[in-house]
Every structure is written in structure tokens, then in C-alpha cells.
From TrEMBL:
The keyword Flavoprotein applies. Keywords: FAD, Flavoprotein, Isomerase, Lyase, Oxidoreductase. This is Gamma-aminobutyrate metabolism dehydratase/isomerase. The keyword Lyase applies. Residues 281-478 form the HpaB/PvcC/4-BUDH C-terminal domain. It comes from Porphyromonas uenonis 60-3. Its EC number is 4.2.1.-, 5.3.3.3. The lineage of its organism: Bacteria, Pseudomonadati, Bacteroidota, Bacteroidia, Bacteroidales. Residues 3-273 form the HpaB/PvcC/4-BUDH N-terminal domain.
Length: 491
């Protein structure tokens, strides 16, 4: 397994075609806008090297029997699924940001079982190809960006009905040695920090959409790839000279990109679905289930930091013993632990697939993500309530450090007796970062739309809840004679 330093150096070897704010970035590794997100992802390597975290951060490969980073692992038990969630909570606690490696792990496990069942039904050999690819990623400890979401264009139309066919990733040409593809994937978390991109269809396909039913892997610097770096709230603060306090979290962060492929050639050994449209729904649902489970870990870890920051803000404001403050903090903990409980529950109820890896309980995973679309918003509201208005109105770090007005800032922003003004400003900026700033992209908005927007989970809950079985339970308890209903219908 790679060390943190080896991972960073491996990124320098890539020749990425990255643009940000109208300019090409020649050195993404050391760019001040990108480096905090790289630091977050590097934590997945750093903790895997530390003895106290190895049980969560590493696993034994079912392919080679070697120790691998859990982010490259194929889940072999319900215990693996539980450890995944615990690992994600740990990393959220350590970075207070998105650590960007979950999507690849979830794509691995969804494609693993789907290719097995596709081969069984269609006589293809995708599963062995994918098995070889997973081993390659494990052997080299690679970061793989799972890519599912297409731009989608007019969402009332299917992929094949779009005016511009490139709004969904599609096959241009099938050759004996591979395929040629064009299209884009949007909202790609950690894309610039990834060695590989693992592409999946974004929705259930019909026969007319067969050219869009495609899954494959390409290096992040493949010929024909362009990566456009996305904007985040307050992101240009990172560009300010000596930026520290105003950032809230100066060390860690996240990022998303628009990942564009223009007639990219994919060797056949890296193709894992090619026009098998009838299996697109299975892949989409399984990936979504795994990723909705993930939110019961990563968002909870970040929530732990936000709760701690709110409690510290109360200390600096001199109100830690106020009953309404205590009650708000308790509510924040209650909501956060409810999310965690859902993540653990859907993992503990996981079952073995035909391919041998374990799939979470789909109903509980969707319940987990449905809660994640709501609870982080209430947690942030309570944090902002406890922090007070100063969080969004206080002067800048430059004012604090100014020879003339700096002493005034320290004097008038002083908090409770025995506390330091600078520390008070730091904790308020951290809360701002998590609730309104760069980290809010991953904690709040991604909680709403990531792994499918709220309605997607409600559709899955409707499908998975087995309402007819619940009706039968009620019939039995109430001694319902269904034959009477049938007679009434006939009248």
C-alpha cells in the first residue's frame, strides 16, 4: 500500500488536462485551490499506515489474499459493510470535509456483482475483466473516481431522445480491440485527485438507449479527456496571501469537476458493459444503495466536528450552561447518531450476492439517505443558532493582523473571560466553513443531491417496503376475511 507521500508523488506523474476559472492548471498537486482536497484524500493513505486504524482502514483482498486499503476492497461480509461505515465516520472526523474516495469503492462493489449476473445471463466475460481491473487497482493502491451522473439535458427525455447525444455518455464505435466513447460526467468528487475514472450508466435504459448502457475504466489523463474544476462557496479565500483563519479549515477540503470525454478509446479489457441495457437498472440501483449507505458514515463524522465546534462556540460566547444551548446540542447529537444508526443498520442487514460480495439492505440504505437529505440541514441550523450572527459579520484575518485596527478587533470581539479572541474567531470561521463555506458543498448540498436527490430514495423505499406483506399482517391481526371483499366487488 502507498504512503501519503507516495500517493502525492504518483499524482505528479499524471498529465491531467485541467481547467479552472478559464485557465489551464499545469500543476494541480500544488495549486492552492486544489491542495486542501488532496490533503483530505491523502488522509485515506495516512491512516491506513497507522497501527491503531488498520482494522478499519485495511482489509484482506478476496483476490490475492494481500492486505489492501479498504477503499479498494470487495466486501466479503456484513462486518466489512459495518467497518466501511465506521471508517467513513473516522475520516469525516479527521478532515471535516469530503475525502473523495467513497464513490470508487461503491462502484467497485456494484459492478462486481452486476458483471457476475450479466455474464450468467448473457454469456459475456465482463466479470473476469473487472476482477482483473480490481486487482490492478489493489496492487497499485489507486484512487478510482466512480462516475455515474451525466449532465442529462432535458430530463423529460430519455438518453436516445436528447437533441445533443453527448449529454449522456455513449458509444460512438465498437472495434475488435475496444470502444470509442463521448460524453461527460458531472459533479465528479475528487476527480483531479484520482488515478482512474470508473464510468457507469446514470439511469435505467431501454433498448433504444442501448448505446448509452456502457461501463468502463480509463486513466484520468487518457487522451480526449478534459476536466473542468467546479466553483465552491468562498473558494477564492484559498488564494489570498497568508490565508488561514478566514478559511475555517485551512488544511482540508473537497472538490467536484465536470469530466468530459471526447472520442476516448477504451481497450476491450477495460469495458464492463457494452449495450446490455437490461442490466443498467441493476447497476444503478446497487451503486446507489452502496453510496446511500456511505452517507451514514462520512456525513456523521463531519457532523461530529460541527457539533464540537458549536459547543466550543457556546464556551467562547459564555453560555455553555444555558439550558436552551444544552438542548440544541443534544438535538444535534440525536440527529447525527440517528444517521449513523441507519448506516450501521443497513450494513448489519447486508446479504451475500451471487458473486460472493455483500450488498447492503436496500430499503434501510435508502431510509439512511432520505434522513441525510434532512438532518444535516437541521444540524447546521442549530449550529448557526448557537454560534450567533458574528459568524458571518466579523472582520477578516487581515483586519485582525493590522497594526492599527487589529487591537480594536481583539478588544471588541472578545468573548467569555479567560478565552482568546483569535480562538473565538477560528471556531466561528470553522462553523461558517461547514455551514455556508467550501465544506458546506459536501456536507449540506451534497447531502441533498448526492447519490440521488430525495425523490429517488422515496421511489426506492416504495419499491422495497413490501406494502402487500404489511397489509397481510394487518389482515391477520384484524381477522379479515378477504372473500367478503371479493363478494362485495361482485355486487
Amino acid at each position: 500500500m502507498k504512503t501519503r507521500e507516495e500517493y502525492i508523488e504518483s499524482l505528479r506523474a499524471l498529465h491531467l488536462n485541467v481547467y479552472f476559472m478559464g485557465k489551464k492548471i499545469d500543476n494541480p498537486v500544488d495549486h492552492p485551490m486544489i491542495r486542501p482536497s488532496l490533503n483530505s484524500l491523502a488522509m485515506t493513505y495516512e491512516l491506513a499506515q497507522q497501527e491503531e486504524y488498520k482494522d478499519l482502514m485495511t482489509a484482506t483482498s478476496n483476490i490475492t489474499g494481500k492486505t489492501v486499503n479498504r477503499f479498494c476492497h470487495i466486501h466479503q461480509s456484513a462486518e466489512d459493510l459495518v467497518k466501511k461505515v465506521k471508517m467513513q465516520r473516522l475520516l469525516g472526523q479527521k478532515t471535516a470535509s469530503c475525502f473523495q474516495r467513497c464513490v470508487g469503492m461503491d462502484a467497485f462493489n456494484a459492478i462486481w456483482s452486476t458483471t457476475y449476473e450479466m455474464d450468467e445471463a448473457c454469456g459475456t466475460n465482463y466479470h473476469q475483466r473487472f476482477r482483473n481491473y480490481v486487482q490492478y487497482c489493489q496492487d497499485n493502491d489507486l484512487v478510482v473516481d466512480g462516475a455515474m451522473t451525466d449532465p442529462k439535458g432535458d430530463r423529460s427525455l430519455s438518453p436516445s431522445q436528447q437533441e445533443d447525444p453527448d449529454l449522456y455518455v455513449h458509444i460512438n464505435e465498437i472495434r475488435p480491440d475496444g470502444i470509442v466513447v463521448t460524453g461527460a460526467k458531472a459533479h465528479q468528487t475528487g476527480s483531479v485527485n484520482s488515478h482512474e475514472h470508473l464510468i457507469m450508466p446514470t439511469c435505467s435504459m431501454r433498448e433504444d438507449d442501448a448505446d448509452y448502457a456502457v461501463s468502463f475504466a480509463i486513466p484520468s489523463d487518457a487522451e480526449g479527456v478534459t476536466i473542468i474544476y467546479g466553483r465552491q462557496s468562498c473558494d477564492t479565500r484559498k488564494m489570498e496571501e497568508g490565508a488561514d483563519i478566514d478559511l475555517g479549515n485551512s488544511t482540508f477540503g473537497g472538490h467536484e469537476t465536470l469530466f468530459i470525454m471526447d472520442h476516448v478509446f477504451v481497450p476491450m479489457e477495460r469495458v464492463f458493459m457494452c449495450r446490455e441495457y437490461q442490466f443498467s437498472n441493476m447497476l444503478v440501483e446497487r451503486f446507489a444503495g452502496y453510496h446511500r449507505q456511505s452517507y451514514g458514515g462520512c456525513k456523521v463524522g463531519v457532523g461530529d466536528v460541527l457539533i464540537g465546534a458549536a459547543a466550543l462556540a457556546a464556551d467562547y460566547n459564555g453560555v455553555p450552561k444555558a439550558s436552551h444551548i444544552k438542548d440544541k446540542l443534544i438535538e444535534m447529537v440525536h440527529l447525527n447518531e440517528t444517521l449513523y444508526a441507519c448506516g450501521i443498520a443497513c450494513s448489519a442487514e447486508g446479504k451475500k450476492t451471487k458473486s460472493g460480495n455483500y450488498l447492503i439492505d436496500m430499503l434501510l440504505a435508502n431510509v439512511c439517505k432520505q434522513n441525510v437529505t434532512r438532518y444535516p440541514y437541521e444540524i447546521t441550523r442549530l449550529a448557526e443558532d448557537i454560534a450567533g450572527g458574528l459568524m458571518v459579520t466579523m472582520p477578516s484575518q487581515a483586519d485582525l493582523q493590522h497594526e492599527e485596527v487589529g487591537p480594536l478587533v481583539r478588544k471588541y470581539l472578545a468573548g467569555a473571560k479567560g478565552t482568546d479572541t483569535v480562538n473565538r474567531m477560528r471556531i466561528l470561521r470553522l462553523i461558517e466553513n461547514l455551514t455556508l463555506g467550501t465544506a458546506a458543498v459536501g456536507y449540506r448540498t451534497e447531502s441533498l443531491h448526492g447519490a440521488g436527490s430525495p425523490q429517488a430514495q422515496r421511489i426506492m423505499i416504495s419499491r422495497q417496503c413490501n406494502m402487500e406483506a404489511k397489509k397481510e399482517l394487518a389482515r391477520q391481526i384484524a381477522h379479515i376475511d378477504t372473500s367478503l371483499d371479493k363478494k362485495s366487488q361482485g355486487k
